[in-house]
Amino acid sequence: MLTKWLQDHKPRGAAMKDQPAFYRNLEQHMDIHRADHSLWVAKPRWDDSVLDFTSSDFLSFNRSGRIREAFLEELGRHENFRLSASGSRVQYGNYDYLIQTENELATFHKAEAAYLVHSGYMANAGSMAAIPLPGDAIVYDDAVHASCHEGMELSLASSKISFRHNDSDSLREVLISLKESNAAFVLGTSSILVAVESVYSMDGDICPLAELVQVVKELFPLGNAQFIIDEAHSNGVIGPLGGGLVDMLGLQKDIAIRVHMCSKALGSTGVKLGVILCNKTVRDRLISNARFAIYSGAPSFPMVACMRAGYRLLENGQAEKGMAKIQSSVRHFLSTITAHPVWEEAVNEGILNIPLTEEYEDIECLTHIVPVLTRPKHELYLFFHLMINNINAYAITFPVVPKGKSRVRLVFHAHNDLDQAETLARVICEWAQEMLNIEAGETESSIPSAARQVYAMKF
Asked: Which keywords does UniProt give here (predicted)?
């Protein structure tokens, strides 16, 4: 994997001098990112002997084969299914099995209605684009997903304003400024859509949703300010039966739009089938105004069947054991790494930091995502060190995260046992100790050993 990664970062522009300028320009632009190893490239899949702290198979439904078995059973109950939807939802594609599945999902999540979309990305972007009217405003947490930003670009909303991440006071300030600047928000003739995520995929922290809901209710008693919440990383991982944050807090009636994704914890089919939970008004607006509903074919039978099979696993309680294992592994990792002799010095010297270690013992529900923050460019050094030690956890940098917030993002799963969590903590601390030694001038090289091996192509 590292060999392929390095090959993909070799400059190519100079070798394109005889090619059409169109392709040469593209390669030269990508060479800028290849030079500092920041080009996103397709990575080969590793086998199960590599410790997995990066995949989205949170509940191990995919690795264990449980989703495959449930999917095949579901197909067996409908032997004469038609493979294609053969049209969009506003044409021929609105078939009975799709509608039945949506009704089941609405019941599971205690929602009035549900609407299935080809991907969670499309569900987020499409909803943000289709729902706000001219004169409306979108207020969003500044850590929301790229799909929300894309939807906002297409939205008719007159204002798009961010508030500080997970900060109810900041949300209050933004909402008050909107009320003071436009009487339509006071009268209720214009609306506000507040965009948040239940679990933030890069920080691993949970939205203080109950606090935010209270702020909105207090300031907009007419109900013209409503929430859209992305539950992609909470689906299957938190809440009763893995129903997500809104279900855990019992706020189903306070959230206008919930977006769930089925390719992560549920291990559903190739594309990331998305579920929009809402009421009938929002559902009708999506069908009549969302481009994904009008200009693309409806999800096919196998896609819907696989998602339905995944939800049946949730309904049967098969997520709960995996959820408990994730909680146990994350807590063991945090307790092990913070107890290591090098931890305190490494944090004080700025070698690494794990924000989630702060008072984690008092947090009732930890998430499966644990970011290890590093200095800029050092995230690659840690990534190399982990890979050399047969552990996979990817380095993340700008623009996925803010500048200066580089990290290696750890993702815990039901298939990560306590021994693996302990190994992970030990290997990270070995790297931290080496970086401290380099800074103290105790080694001949300023590059850590794993990075030297990778750059020398010696494995």
From this structure: Pyridoxal phosphate, Transferase
pTM of the model: 0.92
Eight-state DSSP code of residue 362: G
CA dihedral 421, 425, 428, 429 (to 10 degrees): -170
Last residue of a domain, one of 285, 315, 345: 315
Q: Is the pLDDT of residue 268 over 80?
A: no
Residues forming a β-bridge with 206: 199
Answer yes or no: do 325 and 309 share one domain: no
Confidence of residue 269 (pLDDT cuts 50, 70, 90): low
Asked whether residue 223 is assigned to any structural domain, the reply reads: yes
> Coil, strand or helix: which one is 70?
helix
Q: Is 359 exposed, middle or buried (0-12, 13-18, 19+ CB in 10 A)?
A: exposed
Tell me which amino acid residue 235 is.
N
- Comparing 337 with 121, the larger pLDDT belongs to 337
Q: What's at 139, amino acid-wise?
A: V
What is the extent of the structural domain holding 92?
81-315
Determine the pLDDT at residue 2.
79
- Measure the CA–CA gap between 172 and 226, rounded to whole angstroms: 14
Report the domain count for the chain: 2
Pairing of strands 159-163, 137-141: parallel
Element (H, E) at 117: strand 113-117
The pLDDT tens digits of the residues spanning 110-146 come to 999 999 998 888 999 999 999 999 999 999 999 999 9
Domain for residue 23, yes or no?
A: no
